[in-house]
């Protein structure tokens, strides 16, 4: 064999033997794993060390002009707010800065000795998150967007943007409505999603399990598909932006309860929302007020929260105000490796919750009609992903009602997302919902036809 013919083979063998490309966040995760001895920390560190994951971070950083880490590096932060710090009720007074970064509802759970107690908070490294390479290229090619007086997202030709475009619309939002539309355009972080199973425990104020549910949930993006076949559009879904569906598998008294919901681009066309009630053996067409109801008894999440916030933007009914920005401690998107909310021996309390410092915009959505279930929502929207890191929901009297902090299942090498958990609690009723989700990643290349047909789901 000639030496120049053997050279590619030699180079390939040498390259495969080289360590992963160095990145400071990988080093921080590896150091944390060495300190804690926790396998989940070690697994996530090695996922982040994948050269494909690091290259994706660099490409998104070049497009954005920043990462979460660069924003944090430019800020004046407490020197002891760093990975590996553990905060408990007993030592929290040593960190007077905690109230400036940990939202008040979470701080109250840490300091409480009553319902939904938190044992300890463990700080993990701030990680640069991305979307996929294909979504990045689509976002780079994005044109000019506008928002109609009805709150519809329009492209440069005046058509409904999300029926054709694949990218994110307002990556540098100028106001609250632009920010909310970018949050909505993030969608599910890919084109297909399946959570099988999705398990929920409803807890009483005395930290006792009351009801347990098991569900399967699906979601699909209908247009502008760049990550999963069929690319482009789903046939027959001409005016549908996206759709979701759910089937309850347990307990026995609601087994078979199912719902499907389609979101249309036009503000004048309400969602196609249908539910099958097995005890009645009939399908119901549900209206706008039904989306404000809890999904089933004991569940704090309404149908408008089954994807953080699926409130349809309408400036005639809601005010969207970008009130500022800052940093927030919320759950990391580590679900591809582990669940950051560890309940230990109690389903209704947290033994340990991993939290990560994130740069966010703060968005207030205020009901102007007095007819919505919430008088106001406050969303903390991540500056890297344009998705919600944390959410507070207030009743019509202005009282804090519900709080939601979720964790994603993020694949660093591909920039694709699913869901891992909801930590969701009712401040007024002192009730907690533990929601754990297992992503079915086979759905990325799977067939989802019929999964949003209520008549098919009734026989699931």
From TrEMBL:
<protein>
    <recommendedName>
        <fullName>DUF1329 domain-containing protein</fullName>
    </recommendedName>
</protein>
<keyword id="KW-0732">Signal</keyword>
<feature type="signal peptide">
    <location>
        <begin position="1"/>
        <end position="22"/>
    </location>
</feature>
<dbReference type="InterPro" id="IPR010752">
    <property type="entry name" value="DUF1329"/>
</dbReference>
<dbReference type="Pfam" id="PF07044">
    <property type="entry name" value="DUF1329"/>
</dbReference>
